[in-house]
Amino acid sequence: MTGGTPPPGHRAGFACFIGRPNVGKSTLMNALVGTKVAITSSRPQTTRRAIRGIVHRPDAQLVVVDTPGLHKPRTLLGERLDSLVRSTLTEVDAIGFCVPADEPVGPGDRFIARELAGVKRTPVVAILTKTDKATPEQIAQQLLAVGELGDFADIVPCSAVDGFQVGLVGDLLIAHLPEGHPLYPEGDLTDEPEQTLVAELIREASLEGVRDELPHSIAVVVDEMAPREGRDDLIDVYAHLYVERDSQKGIIIGHKGSRLRDVGARARKQIEALLGTKVFLDLRIKVLKDWQRDPKQLRRLGFYD
Ligand SMILES: Nc1nc2c(ncn2[C@@H]2O[C@H](COP(=O)(O)OP(=O)(O)OP(=O)(O)O)[C@@H](O)[C@H]2O)c(=O)[nH]1
User: Fold this and answer.
1) Which residues form the Era-type G domain (predicted)?
2) Which residues are paired to 60 by β-bridges?
3) Cα(117)–Cα(150) distance, integer angstroms
4) Which domains does the chain have, with CATH numbers?
5) pLDDT over threshold 60, residue 32
6) How far is the CA of 14 from the centre of ligand 1 (A)?
7) Which among 20, 120, 180, 236 counts the fewest CB atoms within 10 Å?
8) 133 C-beta closer than 6 A to ligand 1
9) Rounded CA separation 192/188 (Å)
10) Does the predicted interface ipTM exceed a cut of 0.95?
11) Residues 171-204: tens digit of each pLDDT
């Protein structure tokens, strides 16, 4: 990957998407990369880690860092997300600022636009997401409204669902990357360790149908993942799902354990698809009181300073 002259005009570098929760950042990144690497759901703030997807093209390699939603800090966890987001913004070569085409610009978008104005060195491409849900008039108005939010290198409407201009979003981000060799070998779609992806899939499965504050109280840790002895077609996965209170544990487990069984079955199917083998999933649930506010527990669950 290193040494020698890069192919003429080849660009390589990093970009991230930023925007309010639920504006479609993960979905757009998946559409760009062409494979599911980050989790998506209809619940806000499901992405907690910077998960990278890599777009390989003959002329460029774009490494996409998917950032969590930018929030005004509410809990210790919230504060950490914010510092993670801010350091991400200064480290990338280009930022995609996502605003949905089908909702008026609001205080959340303005808050982020102000943050972005402070990151002077990184060019920002404003992206109007979900154009399939908006009328042409709405899109036209939104382009004007977003243009007034800041000083953007470009403003581009797109839809990750019907594929409208997703390639153009890639082109516009790639235009800001420095010339250079590919940073990762071709074929790598993500550099997240498999164990982290597996934990995210379990978390995603556990979120189906739960309400309100519960999503933010769930964390999943994969304790062990290894092929079953003497078998090359079966992987054993041992994982813990952590919640903050006994009442939440009850909700996850469900009547006579029925909900937890469903979560396990859904997660197992996803993990099998990811790993390409059969999976035995041992999923246990534990209460870690108020883990979101406890620095020691946060570290234990993988949220580092
Ligand atoms: N119709 C339509 N829906 C979309 C589009 N992109 C995303 N969505 C939906 O919008 C919801 C949120 O999408 P995500 O990709 O999870 O949003 P996000 O910004 O990554 O959300 P957080 O992880 O909470 O920050 C999901 O229900 C998606 O299916 C789009 O282009 N069109």
Assistant:
1) 11-179
2) 11, 57
3) 7
4) 11-174 (3.40.50.300), 194-300 (3.30.300.20)
5) yes
6) 21
7) 120
8) yes
9) 10
10) yes
11) 999 999 999 888 766 655 555 567 888 888 898 8
